[in-house]
């Protein structure tokens, strides 16, 4: 059972009911809003923990609603959209969406993404700053700035460490090239995705047993990368 309440912002009644059914079956509480205005009222007055947001709403573009909510809330927001353009995904993720699901999708996939988002936000809210971060065979010691795989120390550069830390703090989430570059190189990063690709290749060589069959890092072509979690 979960204690989270999820708001489904979707004007297609069939999709909305399908999602609600899947969520309730899984033990979540669910509410529905067919447009942005109703959604905003519910977000402001009810105890909502996570948003599933359709971009094509009758009264407002979902992107605008996303930006509005992000001004004052860190709640997880997963975009659920028929728009399949890479640029749309990049824009949504850069505007603060936690994830992006393209219609049609399966209930299993939706629930998996929701579990990641919920787990991530619970960690952010409740746990004190950790000293160690772990995922699969990897362990980061944040005090000593060391990285271990199966207990063996990995020698990583400063930038590789920063990049890995970003992934470990955002397990399961897609990180866009723009987001990563901004975090690693600050505001004036330009659009040097070439440098990022090289950095990523170096990190993969050190971490993946077989870079052709990645167990840690997935490339979301044209968008960015996602670190798989256990
Ligand atoms: Ca719609």
Would you kindly provide a written description of the structure presented here, covering whatever features stand out?
The protein has 230 residues and is α/β, with parallel strands linked by helices. It has eight helices and twelve strands. It has helices spanning 13-26, 36-45, 62-70, 86-94, 107-126, 158-168, 177-185, 193-207, and strands at residues 5-9, 29-33, 50-53, 77-81, 99-102, 132-135, 138-141, 146-149, 152-154, 174-176, 217-220, 224-227. The protein has a five-stranded parallel beta sheet, sandwiched between helices. The chain has a four-stranded antiparallel beta sheet with strand order 6-7-8-9, with helices on one face. It has a three-stranded antiparallel beta sheet with strand order 10-12-11. A hairpin with a 2-residue loop joins strand 6 (132-135) and strand 7. Helix 6 packs across helix 8 (193-207). The longest helix is centred in the middle third of the chain and has 20 residues, at 107-126. The chain is globular and about 50 Å long. The model has no long low-confidence stretch (mean pLDDT 92). Bound molecules: calcium ion (CA). The site of calcium ion has 5 residues, from loops.
Any descriptors?
230 residues; alpha/beta; 42% helix; globular; binds calcium ion
């Amino acid at each position: 059972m979960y204690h989270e309440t999820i708001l489904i912002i979707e004007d297609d009644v069939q999709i909305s009911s399908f999602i609600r059914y899947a969520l309730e079956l899984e033990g979540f509480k669910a509410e529905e809003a067919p447009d942005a205005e109703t959604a905003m009222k519910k977000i402001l007055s009810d105890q909502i923990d996570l948003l599933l947001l359709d971009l094509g709403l009758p009264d407002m573009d979902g992107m605008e609603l996303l930006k509005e909510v992000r001004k004052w809330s860190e709640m997880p927001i997963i975009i659920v959209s028929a728009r399949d353009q890479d640029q749309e995904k990049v824009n949504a993720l850069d505007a603060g969406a936690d994830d992006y699901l393209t219609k049609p999708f399966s209930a299993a996939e939706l629930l998996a993404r929701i579990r990641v988002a919920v787990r991530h936000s619970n960690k952010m809210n409740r746990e004190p700053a950790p000293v160690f971060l772990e995922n699969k065979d990897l362990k980061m010691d944040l005090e000593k700035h060391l990285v271990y795989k199966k207990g063996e120390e990995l020698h990583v550069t400063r930038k590789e460490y920063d990049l890995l830390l970003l992934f470990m703090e955002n397990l399961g989430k897609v990180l866009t090239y723009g987001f990563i570059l901004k975090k690693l190189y600050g505001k004036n990063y330009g659009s040097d995705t070439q440098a990022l690709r090289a950095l990523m290749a170096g990190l993969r060589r050190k971490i993946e047993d077989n870079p052709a069959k990645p167990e840690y890092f997935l490339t979301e072509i044209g968008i960015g990368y996602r670190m798989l979690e256990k």
